[in-house]
Each structure stands twice: as structure tokens, then as C-alpha cells.
Design goal:
The protein is α+β, with helices and mostly antiparallel strands. Helix content is 29%, strand content 29%. The strands form eleven sheets. The protein has an eight-stranded mixed beta sheet with strand order 5-4-7-2-1-13-16-15, with no helix packed on it.
Amino acid sequence: MFKFTNSVLSRFLIIFLLLLPNAAFAFQHSEDAILDYSLEVSFDIEASRVTGIARIPVKRDQVLKVDKGRLNLVDVTLDKEKIDVSGRHETATILPPKEGTIEIRYEGIFKEPAYGFHGEQPLSIISGKGIFLTGTWYPRTDQMCHYHLKVRLPDGYEAVSEGETIEKTTKNGRTDFSFYFSHPLDAIHLIATDRYKVAKDHFNGIEISAYFFPEDVDLIQTYLEHTKRYLKLYENLICKFPYTRFSIVENFLPTGYSMPTYTLLGQEIVRLPFIPETSLGHEILHQWFGNSVYIDYTRGNWAEGLTTYLADHLYEEEKGRGFEYRKGTLIDYQSYVNDKDEFPLKDFRERTDHASEAVGYGKAVMVFQMLKHLVGEERFDESIRNFAVERRFRKASWDDIKKAFEKYDQRNLTWFFDQWIDEKGLAEIGLEDVQVKPSGPRFEVTFTILQKKKVYALDLPVTIYSHGGKVKKLFYIRKDKTHLEMLSDDIPQRIVIDEDYDIARRLSTDEFPPVIARLIGDEKQIIVPPLSGRETYEEIIHAFEEKGGRVNGPDQVAHKDLTASSLVILGIDNPLVNRLYGSLTAKGGFSVVIKKNPWDSSKVVGIFDGRSKREVDAAFQKVFHYGKYSAVSFDHGVNVYKEADQSTRGITEELLKEPVAVDLSTLKTLPYVVERVAGKKIIYVGETHDQFSHHVMQLEIIKDLHRRKRSIAIGMEMFQKPFQKVLDDYIEGKIDEREFLKGTEYFKRWGFDYHLYRPILQFARLEKISVVALNIRQEIVDKVFRSGLDSLSEEEKESVPSLMDFSDDAYKESLKKIFQAHEDSKTKNVDFFYQAQILWDETMSESIDRLLRTHPDDQMIVLAGSGHLVYGSGIPKRTARRNGYSYAIILNDADLEKDIADYVLFPGPIPGLRSPKLMTLLKEDKGKVQIAGFPPESNSEKAGMKVGDFILSIDHTPIHSIDDVKIELLFRKKDDKVKVRVLRKTFLGGPKKVDFGVSLQ
């Protein structure tokens, strides 16, 4: 429940009360005989006063309890004899000493309150705007009554109340109305004003009236026509309309009620264009359920759920969107209902907050959907008709609904109502151990359905999709773990559980989109104010603090907070937005974007952005009316944009991929590919690092683009940013190759044979093509992999890109699989692995963007491992987020999958040079290189070299590091013989220098 202080509540309450679908106010009446209640009232409108006389025939010693509220009981008599009234505060008890008629003279003053409402229900009001009386505006009994109401008003007024028989007379400047309702009610209401324009129509013997204000008379015909359509619909679906008249009444207050014989809609509501198509039908259906079949509140309010199911839900079902409506109810339930405020349907009385609405309306809709599937549509409809007829003008409970269905279904449904009405919660279903294997000419899919926490009896729909269509089957589930199988004629592509949302269940992570409702429903949030301009968002901060949220600055939110909390981030330029999603843009004067928390899928992040405090204050109170959306924006308090994120339909698992076919007649060559990508600002060319053929393709692409006389630059993953100066000096010819390799620490930081990249670097040096070191220092990546971003020092954090997007779920899942394949995955943290990978990607993306900003005329060819490029997830999309430049992705020897790249090359094996090997295992120790071992068949070992020897030189070139050894070997060929001088420790004579001739392998 989202709780507000009075100041916040006063601005949110009008929206919250819109379209409250039933006028039953949970007044708990007794089971005594029905009373005859005659009421006469008149008004002093200027004084906001009602004066009335209530007459109630009673028997001797019949206890009459009267709720007097704030009324003043002027006189109470029994057959004109004054009697004492006992009781305190709002309740009076009358014990008549004889049979007769109790007469109660009273008066009450109902002035317009400051906010117009109190608690959750409109107050009674008597003012120049009009008269609206509900609740205790007359002495109410705790029993049901046959009411006869007489109202005296100034001439020109029109009045509406519960009544099938209405008489109106005008005399001496006043108008008298007489309303008689022949059926028992627990309360009556009154609405009156001198502004009404009245229009009438008829349908099937029912008089239809419209009471509208002059400025809205152009809406009358629309409402009358839609009313006739709904009456026809429900008379066919249920039974004859229970009354001889029905009125649509416009109210000067923002109400949305249905009372017997009329509905009362606020002016703001009446003007909404969708109301005649949706909510009007809901209110009319309440004439059957709630206003003629009464609710037994002592045993649960069933009417809201049934009315919603046969109105709001039915309208969407007729448009083919019923599954979307049901999914929406499950999203609301999962967003708003937690363990603390969850309760069974039998305990629902009325909507008091989002959680109670999700149970009493949403869960009930799902229960009726399951009931229809259980008994079949024909029996469902017949049972509802029988229920409506048999319980007309009587109280009804969930048990009466059960009996109505058992009568036609001829089986005991106690188990169904026990688990869904008497017990709280929803089913929680999981899918695991899915396997596919051939079964003759078909395919067999085996899988296990789990029920977590609690076991329900379910008829579970399962669908297998293939290119030939789908196979759907209903399984009878009664255990916590059920092993099942299905057959498919064609290659099964995916399995989907409950794709139409026919089961009252909790949604899987992939089905549960990030929406505003999830942020509202979360119990506690971390509120992250902007670095400056906090005053713009004070109302938001105050509202979420009242709900239990705590305020943390952007630099105070640690990784442990991100993994356990929903966040309220204020300001689109908040540094925490950049840390989580790279960068976002705002729409309108005030906007809200809800995104998944990338570190905890059960949590969300709400980003609130306002151009000014005025824009925020004008729109924030409206946001909570848009719970089903993921993004909304407003200008001057008016909604200008709303959108909901897509999520999977049903619990889904992919099975076998559709086979990919290539039309060989359309195969292209490398020049064709280069021609097609030549106009792109950035061209990414992927590689498997140790495949020489991939690097040949990279070089050929570079050469072709260079020949087009366009200024190009080469970005390389293989070099780290701190060594850019060394790279520049080499390209410019200021240093030689040895200095370049030593200065960039190539062999220490990359390690792959330099011959793989040497032709590319040599061509770049020859043509003076800029080469950009893209990567971050390896020490930082390693530290993040071990301990996370929070472990970095302030100095190390300066190297971290300011924009970091962790929100690509598909990329995260693919990296997770890579992580789990590592032998040490059980001892490492997958979150830290993901952080390290994104740090790597974002750094390279930032380096590309920086080069193009400083050299806007350049075209860039980026050379990187294919894992950083597939589907665009690693580097390309992140760079496009930064600058929006066009790009193309070319991969080598990659799987042919949709959207994996723009082009895939298959160069075939190409032989290339490799550095020869000394065939020694080396380690560095204080500026010395020591032999730690030998691989099998080592020529160095055969020549006499031993473990523990220190290599001093190779062909007179001093050796101080392993890099020195690799650089020296780079300029040699296999089978070359080199002279290796080592320093060997002897047992008695001390260290000595020994020379060996070694053939390189």
C-alpha cells in the first residue's frame, strides 16, 4: 500500500476514487426482518442544512439501532409519544415499549470540506453547486429496509435517488419528489442540482434517463446509445434487467458509483472519451451484481470481481486482448501484494488501497476465468444466470456462487473454492529439465513442472511451437513436481506454459515487465537525489520517504544496495543513471521511466526527471494512475506520452533453433561486403584471436577502405590506453618495432603471437594510419573481476567510463553461460565477472567515441574479439548510444544466426608466420628470467639447459624480461640456431656463465 500524508493524499485521492464501481459502503446490517422506512427531507441550501422526518413501524421490544453520525436528533417519538434514546456517540439504540411507528425528527449540516473528501469516501455536501448525500445523511438502521423517500427542493432542481416509482410535483416555487423502491436496501442516496438537463429514451420496457450539465449535453446521445447496447448485452448474457428504469447522472464531484436504478459519474469522468466504451458498462452490470443480488459482506465481496470479469475483462476478450487484461491483473497483484498485506478473497470487503484492489478485483477475475475453463463456457453462463435469478434482492456469498455452479456442473467444487477463495496467494509455477529427442518421425519434449511454496490443483495449459504451427495440451497438475511429455510433428522451437494467462499464478521474471506499479508496490526504496537542484524533486522525496524510502547520494549507493533495492533516481543526468544504463533521454516537462534493476531482476529503478519544480508538482500526483506503464511524460501536468515495455508471453523456454539455410546462389565475396559497408562511420571486424585468416580479412578490409582515399583510423582491442603514446611513436616512425613491443608491454598484456597482428601494424605504419589503443589497463579489469567496481581506489575509478550500461539482459545471460563454463566459477562472483566485461566493453566504446569526436572526418575500423561484437551487445550498441553513428559488424567464421552481424566471412585456413619457440617454461624474478621447466621434446633441454638457469642473453642481446625473449624470437625462424648464455649456480664453485647452441622449434 502506498501511504501518503494528508497533504499528499489530498492531491492523489481524486484520481484514486475515480470509477469506484460499487456504492455499497460495507454497512453491516443484521438478519432481522426488513423494515418499512419512510423519509421526508427538505433543505436550506444556503445554510447547507437538511431537515428530515424518518418514520419506521416497529413491534414491541424490537431493538432498533440507528446510526446518527453527525446528525442532530431533534425529537424521537413512538406514536407521537416522546421516548428516550440510549447510546453514545454515533449510534442510538431504541427499544419501543409497544407496537407503533417510530418518528425521528432530525437535522444535519453538510458544508463542503476543504478537500472534498474524507478518508476514502465522499462526504455528504449541500452547497450552491448541488446536493450530494451518502452515508449517514439520515438516521440509518442496521437492517435492510423498504425505502419511501420524499424530497422537497426549490423550483428548478432535479433530484435522483433509488426508486422505480418517481413522482414529481411543482407548486408555490418548490418541487416535491417522491421515490419508492419496492425491494429491500441497506441504504439510499440523493443527488440534486438546479443545473440538470434531462433526456429520456427507452429500451425493452426500461426507461433510460440522462441527467447532464448544460455544458455536456452533447454527450447525452452517446451515453444513451451505449446504455441501450449494454442493457441488450447483459439481458442476453444474464437475465432481464432488474428494474423498470435506469439513469446516467452527472455529478459535480469526481465520483464513479453504481446505485440501484442509476449510476453517478463525475463530470471529469463523463468527459473521458473511453468511459462510454468501458466503465459505463461496468456500472450498468452492477445493477445485477451488487445492486439487485446483494453482497453478504460478512462472507466476502464477490461482486467486484464478477462485475469486472463480465465487464472490463469481457470487453477486452471480445477484442482478442483478454490474455493481455489477465496478464495485467497478475502484474498488478505481483506489484502491489506482498506477504504482509496478502489475504484470501473471502476476507475482501472493499477496495482500500492498491493491494486490496489487486486481490478483490484482480485475483477474483482470475478465479472466474479458471472456473469457466473448469466447467465449460455453457455451464458457466447458465450458472451465472441461475445465480442472478435465484439470489435477486437477497444477500449472496461466495458459497452461493459455489452452489449455483455445483447445481449445473453436478460435481463437488469445494476443493476449488477452498484453494482460491478461502486461502490466500497465487500459484507459483516453474519449468525445468526440458529435453528434446527424436521419437520415430516425430519429436518428444519432456519437461518437469514445479509448484513452489504451495501445491495447487491446476489444469495447466502447455503449448509447443514449431514452424508447422503449435500443439496445445491441458495437464492435470496436483503435485509439487510433475514430469510430463508432449509430441511434436515438426522440430519444436519453444515450449510455453500458460501463454493466455488462464491460471492465477505469479509471473516469471521474463513475464514481469518494469512498470510504475512495481515501484509503488515495493516496500522500501533508495531515493537518489541529483547532485544539484534537489529542491525540484522535494515532493517526490517526501512521498517516498513517507513510504519508508531512504535518501542516499549517487556516490553513496554501493553494489550491495543495487542488488537488494528498488531505486528512485531523480534527474536524468544523475550519475547513477550513467552507472546503470549509460545515458537516457527525457521527454516532456516531467517524465518517469521505469527500468529493470540490472543487478536484481525482482527490483526496478524509477528515473524521475523534471524541467522545473512547477512541472514536477503539476504531474507527480498523476503518475500513480499510470501503474501499468513503463514510461510516461507530461507537459504542464497533461499526459503527452505513455508506453509499456514488452515482456514474454507465458513461461517460455527455447528448444531447438529453426535450421538456417543459405542460398548459395547469393553468396558474395569480400569486395562486395566492403562496398556495402564503406559508407558506415564505424566498421567492426571480429576475430578469433589465434586465427591468422581472420587477421588477413581485417587487413584486406583496411586496405580496401584506405584505397578509397578516406581518412581512416584503426581501433585495436589488443592495446591498452596508457600506451597510446608508444603506439603513436611507432606509427609515426619515431621508434622501431622492438621499442614499440617493449613499450606497449604487448606480450605481457595481450600474449597472442605478434605475427598475427604484425602485418596490420606494419601497413598502418607504412601508410601513417592512426591506430587507437582501445582497452583499459588489465590490472583494473582483473581487480573488478576479483572484487567488483566498488573495490577500485579513487584514482582507479578515474579510468572508469562515466557511462556504463548494465541493462542488456540477453548479453548478461550469454556472459553468465561463459562464466559458468569456467572451472573456477564456483569460487568467483558472477556479478563481478559481468562488471569486468562491461567495463571492458564500455572503455573500448568510449575510446572509439573520443577518437571520432576529436577527428570527426575519420572513418574507424575496429578490430576486436567477436564476443565483443555479436548482436551488437558488447561495443557497437554502446558506441551508438554515445554518438548515434552508423555502423556495420563483420564477423569471421561465426554461426549463422539472425541479427548476429551484418556479414559473416568464411575465409578458410590461411597459413601464417608464427614465432619460433625456445621450448622453455620461464618466470621472472627481480629483473632476471629463470627457466622453470621444459615441455616434452625440448631442444633447449636436449642442449643441456637446466631448470633454475637464468637466461642472460640470446645471440648477445641482453635478456631482462620474458618480453625480451619473445621480442628476440619474433625476428627468428623455425630451425634457426641461436646462442643462449645462461647463469648457472654450481654446488661448490659458485654461479658460472654457460653458452648453449639451441635450434628453435
